[in-house]
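Predicting holo structure, guanosine-5'-diphosphate bound.
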Amino acid sequence: MIGHVDHGKTSLTKALTGKWTDTHSEELKKGISIRLGYADAVFRKCPNCQGSEAYTTKPKCELCGNKANILRKVSFVDAPGHETLMATMLSGAALMDGAILVIAANEPCPQPRTVEHLLALSIGGTKKIVVAQNKIDLVSREKAIEHYNAIKKFLEEFGFKDVPIIPVSANFNTNIDLLIEAIEQHIPTPKRIEGKELKMFVARSFDINKPGTEVKDLKGGVLGGAVIQGSIKLGQEIDVSPGLDGKQILTKVVSLATATGQLDEAKQGGLIAIGTSLDPSITRNDQMRGQVVGDKGKLPKPVMNLLLEVHEFKRLTDEQEKLQLNDLVILNAGTATALGQIARLKGSQAELRLKNPMNVWPGDMIAISKKRKTGWRLTAYGINK
Ligand code: GDP
Ligand code: ZN
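Done. Tokens:
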């Protein structure tokens, strides 16, 4: 779930999953999502009814009351739309097989983060998208159509063709069935690659112990994220990289769970939480976000230098500002973030020095944000050599 702040990502996640992902008090106070929210939905279809209205997330058909058949389970990542939280948004994008771009009908399109999030999707090859034109309850039919055409034009300018635009109202549950139908048709479950080594991106981490728990009852740290490749099993030894203080950490999978229950093994697709034997103090408050989990001894060494082939974005709204030698940049690879500096630049080849280590693979697409007067702006992506 991506899009500009306040356009209704959290509300739409709620309409689809029944879960309000904005649960942190800090976030409630500020009224914005600052962390990635997770929620699962089960998409179903009534075998007796026809058309979009046959789609539902409820066990029973809302038209005829019959039992609806399960199509698939979908995990939603509610990415923050605030401009200072692009790194968190990009972490979320790394986990997504597809995205719902939420655009509010009562504001001109595109808003800055609408553009940036759409660009972010093109990094990492994303992907399939469906646009939810939200808050249609707030505009007239004419305004809604005008706005719909503005979205269409905007998508075309960015090279996104055949993207469905579904007018919805998250607050009134309007056209949620149509949205599910569009997701079913345009964001198919990708083919999973079998038999490869484990690669899991960590997007959240937690200490699940209540304050005052006795040491003997303490549960190990929990890592949340998505398996990008391979599979992870209960009892398995895993490396967590880059780890802490320049050392990868070896730990063990003590429990494995999704929102719907415990598992013995998790493969690609969907969001999982793994209980580990890690000291819970190091997993508190998302401290392990950006780490990669792999089979013991199989992860590449984290790097402090990157050689990238850089592709700069041609912007629709901002003056394009080229990357230059010595520029400070923020790099995002998978769920990881690093501060870097451009140490060499020759044509489209850039060499970067990082302030903190990163795990990267050849061919990885890495997002590059540059500091501007208005803050960090997604400027380019680099392909790791
Ligand atoms: P986010 O920042 O994109 O996650 O946006 P939120 O889901 O927090 O919504 C921002 C505000 O817009 C809240 O006050 C919502 O109640 C409101 N909102 C969201 N969807 C709708 C809608 O469909 N209609 C109306 N009228 N308000 C909406
Ligand atoms: Zn029915």
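The chain has three domains: 2-186, 199-295, 303-384.
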